[in-house]
Write a structure and sequence with these properties.
Elements lengths: L2 H12 L3 H5 L7 E2 L8 E2 L1 H13 L14
Antiparallel strand pairs: 1-2
Length: 69
Protein backbone atom coordinates (compact mmCIF):
# COMPACT_ATOMS: atom_id res chain seq x y z
CA UNK A 1 0.00 0.00 0.00
CA UNK A 2 1.26 3.48 -0.74
CA UNK A 3 0.22 7.00 0.24
CA UNK A 4 -1.48 7.61 -3.13
CA UNK A 5 -3.79 4.67 -2.55
CA UNK A 6 -4.65 5.78 1.01
CA UNK A 7 -5.20 9.39 -0.04
CA UNK A 8 -7.53 8.31 -2.87
CA UNK A 9 -9.51 6.13 -0.43
CA UNK A 10 -9.99 9.02 2.02
CA UNK A 11 -10.84 11.39 -0.83
CA UNK A 12 -13.56 8.96 -1.94
CA UNK A 13 -14.84 8.76 1.66
CA UNK A 14 -14.89 12.55 2.00
CA UNK A 15 -16.66 12.92 -1.34
CA UNK A 16 -19.12 10.13 -0.55
CA UNK A 17 -18.07 8.48 -3.81
CA UNK A 18 -18.95 4.88 -3.02
CA UNK A 19 -18.04 3.58 -6.49
CA UNK A 20 -14.52 4.97 -6.14
CA UNK A 21 -14.42 3.82 -2.53
CA UNK A 22 -15.06 0.24 -3.66
CA UNK A 23 -12.02 0.42 -5.95
CA UNK A 24 -9.81 0.64 -2.87
CA UNK A 25 -11.28 -2.28 -0.95
CA UNK A 26 -10.19 -5.86 -1.20
CA UNK A 27 -12.77 -8.36 -2.41
CA UNK A 28 -12.30 -10.08 0.97
CA UNK A 29 -12.42 -6.97 3.18
CA UNK A 30 -13.77 -7.41 6.73
CA UNK A 31 -15.33 -4.50 8.64
CA UNK A 32 -15.40 -4.82 12.41
CA UNK A 33 -17.76 -2.63 14.41
CA UNK A 34 -18.02 -1.92 18.12
CA UNK A 35 -21.80 -1.65 17.62
CA UNK A 36 -22.50 -4.96 15.88
CA UNK A 37 -21.21 -8.27 17.27
CA UNK A 38 -20.68 -9.91 13.87
CA UNK A 39 -18.21 -8.57 11.29
CA UNK A 40 -19.31 -7.43 7.84
CA UNK A 41 -17.48 -9.42 5.17
CA UNK A 42 -16.86 -8.78 1.48
CA UNK A 43 -16.52 -5.66 -0.65
CA UNK A 44 -20.17 -5.47 -1.67
CA UNK A 45 -21.41 -5.74 1.92
CA UNK A 46 -18.88 -3.26 3.30
CA UNK A 47 -19.66 -0.72 0.57
CA UNK A 48 -23.37 -0.97 1.45
CA UNK A 49 -22.58 -0.35 5.12
CA UNK A 50 -20.27 2.57 4.37
CA UNK A 51 -22.79 4.02 1.89
CA UNK A 52 -25.48 3.94 4.57
CA UNK A 53 -23.14 5.58 7.06
CA UNK A 54 -22.06 8.27 4.61
CA UNK A 55 -25.70 9.01 3.76
CA UNK A 56 -26.30 10.02 7.39
CA UNK A 57 -23.38 12.48 7.53
CA UNK A 58 -23.66 16.02 6.19
CA UNK A 59 -19.95 16.31 5.51
CA UNK A 60 -16.80 14.35 6.15
CA UNK A 61 -13.31 15.76 5.86
CA UNK A 62 -10.64 13.14 6.43
CA UNK A 63 -7.25 14.68 7.19
CA UNK A 64 -4.85 11.92 8.10
CA UNK A 65 -1.19 11.57 7.32
CA UNK A 66 0.62 8.26 7.31
CA UNK A 67 4.36 8.02 7.66
CA UNK A 68 6.75 5.14 7.56
CA UNK A 69 10.48 4.60 7.87
Amino acid sequence: MNADHVEAYFKAMSGKETTKLAEHLSESVVLLSPVFPEPFEGRETVVKILSGLLATIDSLDVNLTFASG
